[in-house]
Specification:
heterodimer; A: six-stranded mixed β-sheet; 7 helices; globular; B: 2 domains; 10 strands; elongated
């Protein structure tokens, strides 16, 4: 059997908030297999965001080990983490986070630029936008696009460097139910077509129900792993 | 990431807030424009001063009576001047002229003006490069006859007679005496040392007896010695010193006269204008630094405003260096753009100042050297990088998690 894409062992994260130490994650261990679609749920303050930041290589755990795609990433330096984020992680945010001054295609090109891709960048970005159904919106700026369309651009951007995992933080949270459903459908379609592992952090039980597995967090511990 | 892309992106971001960008650039524009135009004016002033010092004549020594720590110096006389024209004792001396000078009232049919009157020997025209446009200069005959004749400058001719031709034979009055005009000088042009064209010349003996009464009848104000060439200026100085000492001008063992070389005058004038140029450039430089602080200020604001963008870029894989370069390119473009506009404005300022100066018949032509343009442009770029470094570093050091969370 193939190696799991994510292996997390005894992950701990302690924040120093002035005098008080906050145990955001106490002891979290789990495994995600390649090609899985999972969701992480939990009330606010459960350590959900902290876990997502660590899984997305935006932050380092205080203790414990995180192996992503066969590589231990829990102790890497900032620039090496940047490299991992660039190559192995695709982000989809609740508020889309597109560069407002750049066109859709330039936004999708951005991760390739940081990856040092020089050849064919524009063509690849255009193809990615076509594959999320925005072939006719290539040179539109984010302000000229609807929320659903912006999230499609973000999805195209997340996929452009062929990452091992997609981290989606409330991807439908800022969308109406119709475009929210379209985005979920698109995410699941990408998972089927490309086999990309998807991790969705959400409050929405309807979204979580569409995933294969739900990890529920409470007070920095995994409550139930279904 | 390639630099072209970085520049385009930086331009985009600068364009997104045009007013702020132009106000920030204004600081650098003013700085660079003032540095360059100040240097140009300084250079113009120094070249105009050295021009006018050179127009006095070439390889000259100016001898005047009196020296530091000498009381009751023996005055210089016409005999001293003649003694210097000794081929054996002073082979390096080509020519010697002596003169007396005063301000006097020169009048002609009702018009009257106070101008400089020089009582000179015939050699004066030669050592001072004076050219006659009409008539003749003071001759030896006029000296021995103590003739009441006058040679006038071109500007004086214009002022008094309203013309510069057909003046020889006219009579004008200097103080109480009538003088016949025997010659008119060609114009030497304006000079920062005052106009040399508004002066009149009379025979030195006439001056001594009628116009310029000094304690000692034989006395002259100054003797001008012209050396045979630039290389003999030094030996001429020594020869002149020896001859004058032989003529009891060093009774107390100390020379009671002072010899000033033309080069010395040039040197001291140049050192004055150098200081002036440095001073003016320094003022400009300070405003350039103030402009740089403006850039730093605005870049700091920009980093704070764009924290979320920086967080996003980092999440997408931007390394520390990527963010650093992005912001450095922006600040450099700001200051370089300001620098280039500043150079253009300095060109306009220099042209205007040159125009004003020439309208006021001052010979000040601002000289905008390619070196000062390069210097100011490179300096403005350095200012941009230097003052951009801190904000850019701050941006690059942001934690992606914190940055993404900010609104």
């Amino acid at each position: 059997m193939a190696e799991p894409v994510i292996q997390v062992q005894h992950l701990k994260k302690v924040y120093q908030m002035g005098e008080i130490e906050v145990n955001a994650l106490r002891d979290v261990s789990f495994v995600v297999e390649r090609g899985e679609v999972i969701s992480i749920m939990g009330p606010s303050g459960s350590g959900k965001s902290t876990l997502m930041n660590i899984l997305g290589c935006l932050d380092r755990p205080t203790a414990g080990e995180y192996i992503l795609d066969g590589q231990t990433v829990s102790n890497l330096r900032d620039d090496d983490l940047a490299l991992i984020r660039n190559r192995k992680v695709g982000f989809v945010f609740q508020s889309f986070n597109l560069l407002p001054r750049e066109t859709a295609v330039a936004n999708v090109e951005l991760p390739m630029r940081y990856a040092g891709v020089k050849e064919n960048r524009r063509k690849l970005a255009e193809d990615a936008l076509v594959s999320v159904g925005l072939g006719d919106r290539l040179t539109h700026k984010p302000t000229e696009l609807s929320g659903g369309q912006q999230q499609r651009v973000a999805l195209a951007r997340a996929l452009i460097n062929n990452p091992s995992i997609i981290m989606a933080d409330e991807p439908t949270g800022n969308l109406d139910s119709k475009s929210g459903k379209e985005i979920m459908d698109l995410i699941l379609e990408m998972n089927k077509e490309r086999g990309t592992t998807i991790i969705i952090v959400t409050h929405d039980p309807g979204v979580a129900a569409q995933t294969q597995r739900i990890i529920r967090l409470r007070d920095g511990l995994i409550e139930v792993a279904e | 990431m390639n630099i072209g892309q970085l520049i385009l992106e930086a331009l985009d971001s600068l364009k997104s807030n045009k007013l702020r960008t132009s106000l920030t650039m204004l600081g650098v524009i003013i700085g660079v424009a003032s540095v360059i135009s100040m240097l140009a004016i300084g250079n113009g002033a120094s070249s105009s001063i050295s021009d006018s010092i050179n127009s006095i004549g070439t390889n000259l020594l100016f001898i005047s009576s009196g020296a530091k720590d000498v009381s009751n110096p023996q005055p210089l006389t016409l005999d001293d001047a003649e003694a210097l024209m000794d081929m054996d004792l002073a082979p390096s001396v080509a020519n010697v002229a002596a003169y007396l000078t005063t301000q006097a009232q020169v009048s002609y049919s009702g018009t009257s003006d106070s101008i400089s009157v020089f009582a000179v020997t015939p050699a004066y025209a030669e050592v001072r490069n004076l050219e006659i446009s009409e008539g003749e200069f003071i001759t030896n005959e006029m000296i021995s006859k103590r003739s009441t004749v006058v040679v006038i400058g071109s500007e004086t001719a214009e002022n008094i007679f309203g013309r510069t031709e057909n003046i020889v034979g006219e009579t004008l009055r200097i103080e109480k005496n009538q003088y016949r005009v025997v010659g008119v000088l060609a114009s030497k042009g304006g000079s920062s040392l005052g106009s040399q064209d508004n002066q009149v010349y009379i025979p030195i003996t006439t001056g001594q007896s009628r116009l310029i009464r000094r304690m000692n009848r034989e006395r002259v104000d100054s003797i001008i010695v012209q050396a045979t060439s630039a290389d003999t200026v030094e030996s001429a100085t020594q020869e002149v010193t020896a001859i004058l000492e032989g003529r009891k001008h060093a009774k107390t063992g100390v020379d009671d006269f002072t010899i000033m070389k033309q080069e010395d005058i040039l040197e001291s004038a140049t050192s004055i204008t150098d200081v002036l140029t440095l001073f003016l450039g320094g003022i400009g430089g300070i405003s350039l630094i103030v402009g740089g602080i403006g850039i730093m200020n605005i870049m700091l604001v920009s980093v704070t405003e764009r924290t979320r963008e920086i967080g996003l870029r980092k999440a997408l894989g931007a390394k520390r260096r990527d963010i650093l370069t992005q912001f450095l390119v922006e600040s450099s473009l700001l200051s370089l753009g300001g620098g280039i506009i500043g150079v253009l404005i300095a060109a306009v300022i220099s042209a205007i100042i040159g125009k004003i100066a020439s309208n006021n018949s001052l010979s000040l032509a601002p000289v905008m050297g390619i070196d000062s343009i390069l210097l100011a442009t490179i300096f403005s770029l350095v200012v941009g990088v230097f003052f951009g470094l801190y904000p850019a570093n701050r941006a690059a050091g942001l934690e992606p998690v914190e940055a993404l969370r900010s609104e």
